[in-house]
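FIELD: query
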Amino acid sequence: LLGREDMSEGRRPPWFPLFLDVAGRLCVVIGCGGEAAGRVLRLVECGARGRLVAERLPGGLEPLLAASAFEWLARAYRPGDLEGAFLAVADDTPTVNAAIWREAERERILLNAADDRAHCHAIVPSLLRRGDLAIAVSTAGRSPALAIRIRRELEERYGPEYEEYGDLLGRLRDPVA
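FIELD: result
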């Protein structure tokens, strides 16, 4: 086990694996980097209420935002943009991500900063979803390419039929128990 003395040497303990229920909760995505669109898409799929703060809209998001509980503020990040948030995602410049981190720390809001482990409370794994079955692969942000490769191998092993298996087993759980 790693103690505080290990953390001061730059080592950190492993990340605690967790899936979050964001349905109906305010989630804020800031920036329009390469990961922002994917994070918004996942949050919408999971039923989050949201706010996207970005000077320009990441590609393909306009129809999705129009049909969801996400609003778009067409401007740069400002302190206070995380107000009331359950979860935040930063996908901006390192300087802006650091400012978002400070606000998240002060307001005790979980933050995922895309490609910026130093400013993360949470990591978004590479995810394989088959209905309610979700298989997450993480390298603690150190090698996203490896996580994606493993997820693709899992996609071959666990095909679309696993959604049906999961549904069937879910319906049988209570009667069998």
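FIELD: remark
Residues 11 and 26 are 32 Å apart (CA to CA).
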